[in-house]
Amino acid sequence: MNASAGTKDWYAGRFTQFEEGLNGASQTPLHALRRRGFAAFAAQGFPTTAEEEWRFTSVAPLAATHFHPVLAYAASGFAEPDLRPWSLTGTGGIVLVFINGHFSSGLSSIPPGSPGVSVGSLGAALAHDPALALRYLSPERRGGDAFTSLNTAFLLDGAFVRVGDGVTLDAPVHILSLASSGDTPLLVQPRHLIIAGNGARLSVVETYGGKGPGLYLTNAVTEIFVGEGGAVEHDKLQMENLSSFHVGTTMVSLGGEASFTSNAINFGGAIVRNNVNALFEGERAECTLNGLSVATGMQHVDNHTVIDHAKAHCQSHELYKAVLDGSARGVFNGKIFVREDAQKTDAKQTNKTLLLSDEATIDTKPQLEIFADDVKCTHGATVGQLDEEQVFYLRARGIGQTEARDLLTFAFATDVINRVHVDALREKLDALLHARLRQGRVNMET
Amino acid sequence: MSLLEVRNLHAGVQGNAILEGINLRVEKGEIHAIMGPNGSGKSTLAGVLAGREAYVVTEGEVLYQGKDLLGLAPEERAREGIFLAFQYPVEIPGVTNMYFLKAALNAIRKHRSMEELDAMEFLSLVKEKMKVIDFDQSLLNRPVNEGFSGGEKKRNEIFQMAVLDPTLAILDETDSGLDIDALRIVAEGVNKLRSPENAVVVVTHYQRLLNYIVPDFVHVLIDGRIVKSGGKELALVLEEKGYDWIRGESGAVTADAQEAGSK
Lengths: 446, 263
Hints:
heterodimer, A: alpha/beta, 10-stranded mixed β-sheet, 10 helices, 23 strands, B: about 260 residues, alpha/beta, Rossmann fold, 6-stranded mixed β-sheet, 4-stranded antiparallel β-sheet, 9 helices, about 40% helix, globular
């Protein structure tokens, strides 16, 4: 199609421009990876709704816009006060700030180093140790799509977090990605790499937000490696501005007896697609994927998860909830693979959606592909309105009609927030949720 | 002025008449029992008084403290001092008992132009009221009724009643599903909450609750009408002779009611 060809030509032109600016750096292993990424993107193009994985989510508005990849750091008018609404007070942890996908050392806060912990800019880490790229950054092998390929093609910067064997990081690492577009729509593509050694423990919080109403596309990729017996909590708060697009892909590998928890919270964005792909690479590991999407107006929020039980004796738990109002549209697609050798797998998936309006819709699709015989896999999905008997019970005790509705909606949603173990984030999320649930509706303009 | 005055109340659900002309007067300080067989309209009466929207009032009126009750929303009735103890208390996952009760109490206080209680004041009130009903503190921080046993749910209703301190409490089959020990605890709670300033309407199928909550008046509801009223001894006669005795004694009334119901 013309539009598709036009889109590819546009990004091909941007890629050539990018390469020309690299000079000698175009011979590095990293750049070979980028080239592979661009070739994969050019071969696929942006997905259409004809593809099964994108049946319910049209990215046509996004493919029709010529976004400009951001190739270098610029402060873009961001200063310290812009960070305050996003800050997680009292954690005393590391804060890595990215402006339009590029590390800002001035705005970041990295307390004096502790042994076994390296954090900072991925761009800097790759410059220091080019072999990192070959060792860890290879999304294609784990089912990356056109968006991950596009991210790889322009891979420049993002967060780098490595915690050595047996090291516990008490305070969370906060990765704050802020975007700002003027008249030129920007393509913001942070690439985060998080490596937890054997027995290492840490929490990472990713937040995404925009300044001003300008249109941009965040296309973020996060790769997480959890070593044997390691434990990682990954919390993500997506609050892009309401005209912009967010595609986020989180890819996780779990070693034996590792534990990983993802809490993906979505409040913002016009069209949002989140992919969380987890792969068990060792036995007796545990993976928990939780999600909450609160949307209204014309927002479209698509959550795709894949849990690949490639090894035996692993457990996965999944709870995705959505509160949809206005003409918002939700999608949940939860795939669970249980490979032939993955005996004694225990997988549970739940998707619950609360619709506050007649126009809001959800497409929910559990997908279990089980090739082993001694396993326990359950899934369930519910879609509905508030329970009127619960509403009456609250009213019969003196609580007003709309307060009762807000309270019940809040309770439904905060069930996911309660699973966040980073106290400062959980409190922030509760406050954000409270602000959004008013008069029995979802309000995004707060 | 009576606390509650029900005049010729007709009500039904989805076009089916259930109440066919209820008259009832309740004064402060009184306990009234409304007894009747299954399907007689007892829970409908309780529901209409509390403001359940499924019920449609087709005739008659209800005055509460001299004012029209039926025009008020359920929450307004609660704020004016009406409390319905549910036959089937509802589970509310994600909302703790404490949070729920504080929201309810403060909504009521706000309506009465009283200052809202802060967390500390509320906690001390709750601790005091817990003693009334021997309520387990661990249930306070659990979601409302979620995973509670039948007895715990009913006890929670009376605990809420203790905290909200209603002027008119309507207990809808609070005895159903309770063993004798739980029944006694619930009844003792209600008795402790009695005062010359409030009234209780006990809706029940069986007489046994009335051994513990002794009513001043007993009304027998059959086929949507109060067919007989008397003192506490009426409950004992009913226990002995059954509802058929009343049906036989007031056969004409019952026949009328059936005729009206079939229209």
